[in-house]
Structure formats: structure tokens, C-alpha cells
Specification:
The protein is of the alpha+beta class and 266 residues long. The protein has helices spanning 3-48, 53-78, 84-100, 102-117, 157-162, 188-200, 236-254; strands at 125-128, 131-138, 142-146, 152-156, 166-167, 173-175, 178-182, 212-218, 223-228, 230-232.
Length: 266
């Protein structure tokens, strides 16, 4: 083979391969623009849907990275590189990572469902997974709670989502369920009037729905009186503590006797 034929073949090879390189570069350039466009579209769509910022950021990033991977595979195929083995490697790697991180993936899936369905929001007081506290942060994998005594508890999302969740802040009003004991010698009509007078002292107690007062049980030691007023959720504990103290003082002032021995707490 002379130099002229070698040069001719080299030119033909460069022409053919050069076109492939140009096409591959074109695919990459267009793919980058498409990936950025899809990322912006996902951002806008989720923002219009008022989705959580964490989920929005993660979804848009996942869309961008996924598009880039597909574009890269298409560019490699344009160069004549066999992508079947490359895809198989990616699949095997994904399976291995999935098996190694199956607990984290379960937390991730639960985190997305929590963010989408919103069984609770930031600052809600909830009980779930054996703990209770105010919601400070909702992440993809975990939820951070702050207890009443200012401890931080980090709960895996899977445990929260798999178990019952009690959200004490979901409703704007709550009912206090209080029980007071009086002796059998007490005048029940007088007891009810005294309780109503104490309830009337606090403006935080709602007029509607009206409070309920009634005999709950004839116990071994005294009569148990149920008192069930309604308050705004934010006033719950303040009213609870006020009524416990005010009721005792008013009973003493009115000569209403409380059993001196209380049964053991169940």
C-alpha cells in the first residue's frame, strides 16, 4: 500500500468518524439544553403545585441527571460504542446499590409520601413511632422532632409512615378531657355550678361548642366528674394547667370535699 492510498483511506476514515464525532457532540449539546429545560419545567410545575422545597429540588436534580445519562448513552451509541454492556453495568450497579441501601430507600420513599400527603407540617405537635414532639424539619430520609423539654429526636421516615400518627395540631380547636373527684357527701348541683363558674373565669374557653359536665363514674373513692371544655389548640396546655389549680382552690373555698385518698394511677 503506497502513501497515496494510505492517505486516501485516512481521509475517508477521518471523514466518516469526524461526522460521528460531530453528531455525538451535537447530541450532547442539545441534550444539555433539553436537560436544563426539563429541570426548569419540573421546578415550575412543582412550585405551582406548592410542593415541598426539598422534594422540588430533589426531583428537578433527578430529572436533570437522568436526562444527562440518557444523552450520554445516545452519544456513545453514535460513536459506535456498544452501549448494551454499559447499560447492563449501570443496571447491575443500581441493583447492588439498591440492595445495600434498601433501608434508606424505604425511608426515601416514605419521605416523599410524607411530603406529598402532608399528614403533618412544620411546628405541628405529633405523636408517632413511639415518640412525640414538635416537627422541626422534614427531610427526604428523616423527620426531626423537638420534645417539650427541648430534646431533639430524629425519626426515620419509614417508621413514622408505617405506624399511626397522631397530629394534635391538625385541628384549630381541641377538647380538654378533665376528671375531678368529689366525695359522696357533696351536692352535685353545687359542684356543677362551681365548675361552671371556674370555666367562666377564663376567656380562652370557647362558648361554642359549650363545655360538657357530667357524672362519669361512681368510683370506690368518691364520684368522678367529667369536665370537657373546648379551647383553641394553641391554648390547650395553658387552660389545662389553669383549670387544675383553679378548680382545687374553688372547691376548697366552697367547702366541696375531695377524697383524701386517691386510687393508684392505672
Amino acid at each position: 500500500m503506497n502513501d497515496e492510498s494510505l492517505l486516501t483511506q485516512l481521509q475517508e476514515w477521518m471523514t466518516a468518524f469526524g461526522l460521528r464525532i460531530l453528531m455525538a457532540l451535537l447530541i450532547l449539546l442539545v441534550g444539555l439544553r433539553v436537560a436544563a429545560l426539563l429541570q426548569r419545567l419540573v421546578d415550575r410545575a412543582m412550585e405551582r403545585g406548592r410542593m415541598d422545597a426539598t422534594l422540588t429540588s430533589f426531583s428537578s436534580s433527578l430529572t436533570y441527571v437522568g436526562t444527562i445519562v440518557l444523552v450520554t448513552i445516545a452519544a456513545l451509541a453514535q460513536l459506535g460504542i456498544q452501549t448494551a454492556s454499559f447499560i447492563a453495568i449501570l443496571g447491575s450497579a443500581g441493583l447492588a446499590i439498591g440492595l445495600a441501601l434498601q433501608g434508606s430507600l424505604a425511608n426515601f420513599a416514605a419521605g416523599i409520601l410524607i411530603i406529598i400527603f402532608r399528614p403533618f407540617d412544620i411546628d405541628d405537635y405529633i405523636e408517632g413511632a413511639g415518640v412525640a414532639g414538635f416537627v422541626e424539619e422534614i427531610h427526604i430520609l428523616t423527620t426531626t422532632l423537638k420534645t417539650i423539654d427541648n430534646r431533639t429526636i430524629i425519626v426515620p421516615n419509614r417508621k413514622l409512615f408505617e405506624e399511626n400518627i397522631t397530629n394534635y395540631s391538625a385541628k384549630s380547636v381541641r377538647r380538654l378531657d378533665l376528671v375531678f373527684r368529689v366525695t359522696y357527701q357533696s351536692d352535685l348541683d353545687q359542684v356543677k355550678q362551681v365548675i361552671l363558674a371556674v370555666l367562666a373565669q377564663d376567656d380562652r374557653i370557647l362558648k361554642e361548642p359549650p363545655p360538657e359536665i357530667g357524672v362519669l363514674e361512681w368510683a370506690d373513692i368518691g364520684i368522678r366528674i367529667a369536665v370537657r371544655p373546648w379551647v383553641n389548640t394553641t391554648d390547650y396546655w395553658g387552660v389545662y394547667f389553669f383549670l387544675q389549680e383553679a378548680m382545687k382552690k374553688r372547691f376548697d373555698a366552697e367547702g366541696i370535699h375531695i377524697p383524701s385518698t386517691l386510687p393508684p394511677i392505672p
